[in-house]
Design brief:
By secondary structure, the chain is of the alpha+beta class. It folds into 2 domains: 79 residues, 3-Layer(aba) Sandwich (Glutaredoxin), CATH 3.40.30.10; 109 residues, Glutathione S-transferase Yfyf (Class Pi), Chain A, domain 2 (Up-down Bundle). Helix content is 55%, strand content 8%. The protein is built from 9 helices and 4 strands, in the order βαβαββααααααα. The chain has a 4-stranded mixed β-sheet, covered by helices on one side. α1 links the parallel β1 and β2. α1 runs parallel beside α3 and α1 packs across α7. It starts with a strand and ends in a 9-residue tail after the last helix.
């Protein structure tokens, strides 16, 4: 069976991406959680990840690290179901996913993922506001052009939705002001049962285990 090594569900945005994609693809996996910023993490991470970071997917002796690489490997295991079937649509989905993977640094830094928090008041600087506006534009454009195929960014659920999943939680926690189309996507995607399962895990970490809801 596949094994996915992740960090805290309340904090680790990179872990959420492949986790939720594997769930949507119906690929069974064992979850191995290493709490971030702990002695256990420092002691154990090197046996799983050559980069000493999470997430990392284990498939027998194979180690696949980096969220976007894990998503591509999952796509192969699932017979190509992680991306849209039409070639040009698939290329666009990969483009916005790569933009998410590499960009939006200002927004990420100022609005860190705190999955269990609500009503956070953290004003954004100009660069971060531009990041939010760009994400709004991506979501709005995708939904306007692909709505006939289903409720997700490119119609059916794809790796692009997984790549933006942590942004859903950030926008919800901090109360991002979005256009009506982007807001509708946010509200729909937040009800995803797999995302709700992740959030339940995050709540357990914070309320039962006493894990912090933000990095020290």
């Amino acid at each position: 069976m596949l094994q996915l090594v992740i960090g805290d569900k309340a904090l680790s945005s990179w872990s959420l991406r492949p986790w939720i994609l594997l769930k949507h693809l119906g690929l069974e996996f064992e979850e191995i959680r290493l709490p971030l910023d702990t002695d256990r993490f420092e002691l154990e991470i090197s046996q799983y990840s050559p980069s000493r970071r999470v997430p990392v997917l284990l498939d027998g002796p194979l180690r696949v690290w980096e969220s976007i690489a894990i998503c591509e490997y999952a796509n192969e295991l699932a017979g190509g179901r992680a991306w849209p079937q039409e070639r040009t649509t698939r290329a666009e989905a990969r483009a916005v996913s790569a933009e998410m993977h590499a960009g939006f640094e200002a927004m990420r830094n100022e609005w860190s993922m705190r999955a269990t928090s609500r009503g956070l008041q953290v004003p954004l600087g100009s660069a971060a506001r531009a990041d939010v506006a760009r994400i709004d534009a991506i979501w709005s454009d995708c939904r306007k052009r692909y709505r006939s195929g289903g409720p997700w960014l490119f119609g059916g659920y794809s790796a692009a939705d997984a790549m933006f999943a942590p942004v859903l939680l950030r926008f919800y926690s901090y109360g991002a002001e979005l256009s009506p189309t982007a807001q509708a996507y946010l509200e729909f995607a937040l009800q995803d049962p797999h995302l709700q399962e992740w959030l339940s895990g995050a709540e357990y970490e914070v309320t039962i285990e006493g894990r912090p809801e933000k990095h020290a």
